[in-house]
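Q: Got a minute? One more chain.
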Amino acid sequence: MNVEIISIGDELLIGQVVNTNAAWMGAELSAAGMTVSRVTTVSDSSEAIFSALGIALQHADVVLLTGGLGPTNDDITKDVLCRFFNTKLVLHQETLNHIRELFSRRKYVLTESNLQQAMVPASCTVIPNMHGTAPAMWFEHHGVIVVSMPGVPYEMKGLMTDFILPALKPKNAGAAIVHKTIVTHGVGESWLADKISHWESALPPHIKLAYLPRPGMVRLRLSAFGKDSCRLQEEVSDYTKTLYTIIPDCIIGSDNDTMESVVTDLLIQHHLTVSVAESCTGGYIAALLTALPGVSECFLGGVVAYKNEVKCALLNVNPDTIDMQGAVSEAVVIQMAEGVRNRTGSDFAIATSGIAGPGGGTDAKPVGTVWIAVADKNGGTAKSFFFGGNRERIIIQSAAAALNYLRIKLIADFV
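A: Always. Here it is, folded:
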């Protein structure tokens, strides 16, 4: 089943709001075995919405619209739908009752604009919105399903999960899509493409490979299309096993794994703890770790020691070492790791010190130079890295490299 998504809103086009709705819908539709062939974002303009609908109906089996269904004057989607499907607005009593009950329960003042949300195109099937006021509207036009939903993310997700996906799945019977993602670290997209070129060229036509790069890692996503889900799973599994034999040292995980989740899983599995001392990464490693549920089992805490005086006062870094070798050096970053480990009592500690830019670099230590250390009960070791890109990319790559440094040590010591 071929699906197109139309996202409506000036705020999406000017970058004021990120279009998370389309991303979430794409993932859910794909998981249900449907193919999203196009995502179109249009302004709050009648002609833009009308035109996008006309184009989508030429190609799609299902068209999903989000946005433009609120109580304000710029919410014009219903009027466009009436014009497109040659119908008129009528009162939907169940929706009106729902709105009145909702406003009464919340002790809100009911306005005429709110009441207008109970007006729907006469030719649609109304889908109740249990998370808001504006309902979704289901149309069928020359064999194409068109569903219009509010743009508020939690309202759209509720409608999709409770009503729309369950209604679409039976119509998509006999089609299957299987995805498998392999997560790699430390190598670039072009290197990977060259390394696995023979493996990639041997993939059958119904299995596609996508390269999904981000700072510090590349995800390799296999997508298999067919009718027999079990058979597709077996095929993808076989090709994945072969890939592990080609680039074993580059692969850190699969599917939704991240560097931080892989590291914390290893720590929890072996009943170990970690702390962090961060300079150039500014707390980013700690933020990555604490974003994970259950991380309190292994993460004890950290210190963001940006100024040299803080490195000395809180992490017991020797000021003479900083004077002689500089804050961005092997000796200092090891002392940082050992210092935070002693402070927190953790089994392991990670430390970073570098030059994230855009200023501060020298010929000897240009922007992008980063030292990373890992310490345990036997002391600390450190490695130097050089990362390209802007300040944000350098910080992201530094955090990934620091966590990977710990991951490698954990595997060597405990796996």
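A: Residues 70 and 176 are 35 Å apart (CA to CA).
Q: Perfect, thanks.
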